[in-house]
Amino acid sequence: MIMRQITPDPIRAEYARLSHQYDHRWSFYVSQSVEETLRRVRVQPSDRVLDIGCGTGALLRSLRRRYPRIELTGVDASAEMLAIAAEKLRQGARLCLASAPRLPFRDETFDLVVSTSALHYFRDPGRVLAEMRRVLRPQGRIALTDWCRDFWTSRLLDRLLRRFNAAHYRAYALAQCAEMLWQAGLHPELLERYKIDWLWGLMTVVAVKPPD
C-alpha cells in the first residue's frame, strides 16, 4: 500500500499556534484596521454581512456593537481562531469553518462581504473574489483592507515574509487590487491607501456587484 504524506496547511498551522496570543499581540493593528475599514464602507442595520477571514471576530464584534440587530456571518480556516471568536460573540454571529475559495453559501446571500488582512494569504485571489461575487446580491458591496505595496515598509515586510514565512503569499499595490476587482466583475467605487502608523501602510477598496 502506498502511503501519501499530507503537507499541513501553513496558514492553519500558524493561526493554531498564534490563536491564544493573537488579540494581545496584534491589538493595535487589528483595532485600527477594523476601524479604518468600517469608516470607509456604508453599512445598513438591515444588511446581511459576511466577514471572510474573520479570525477572532474583531470586526464582527464591532459591527454587533454598532448595529445590535444586524445579521452577521464569519468564515475562517482556523478552528482555533473561530473558537475565540465564538467566546467573544456568544450568539451574536454565525461562524463557519471554511476556506475562502469554497464558501458554503448559496448565490446572492449577502449584502456586504468584508475581509481585513487576509488578501495577502490567498494563493488564488481571483478565485476568492469570484466566490465573494457569487455570494453577493446584485448591487451589494465588497470591502477589502490589506497591506499596500505602494508603501516601502509594506514592500519590505512582503519580501521578508515571502522568504521566511510559509503562510504568507504576497501583498499587492492599490492598482493591482483594483484590476483584480474589475477582472472579477466588480466595480470599484473607493480606492484608498493610508498609514495607521510609521510601519503599517494599508489600503481599503470598496466595490459594487453590478446588476445582471
According to CATH, the fold-level topology is Rossmann fold
End-to-end Cα distance? 51 Å
Rounded radius of gyration (Å): 17 Å
Q: Care to count the β-strands?
A: 7
Count of domains = 1
Characterise the protein shown here.
The protein has seven helices and seven strands. Mean pLDDT is 92; it is low at 1-7. It has one domain (10-208): Vaccinia Virus protein VP39 (Rossmann fold, 3-Layer(aba) Sandwich), CATH 3.40.50.150. Helix 1 (10-25) packs parallel to helix 4 and helix 2 (27-40) packs across helix 3 (58-66). The longest helix has 16 residues, at 10-25. The radius of gyration is 17 Å and the shape is globular. 40% of the residues lie in helices and 24% in strands. It has a seven-stranded mixed sheet with strand order 3-2-1-4-5-7-6, with helices on both faces. It is of the alpha/beta class and 212 residues long.
What's the helix and strand layout?
Layout (H helix, E strand, L loop, with lengths): L9 H16 L1 H14 L7 E5 L5 H9 L4 E6 L2 H11 L4 E4 L12 E7 L8 H11 E12 L4 H13 L9 H10 L3 E9 L5 E8 L4
Parallel strand pairs: 1-2, 1-4, 2-3, 4-5
Antiparallel strand pairs: 5-7, 6-7
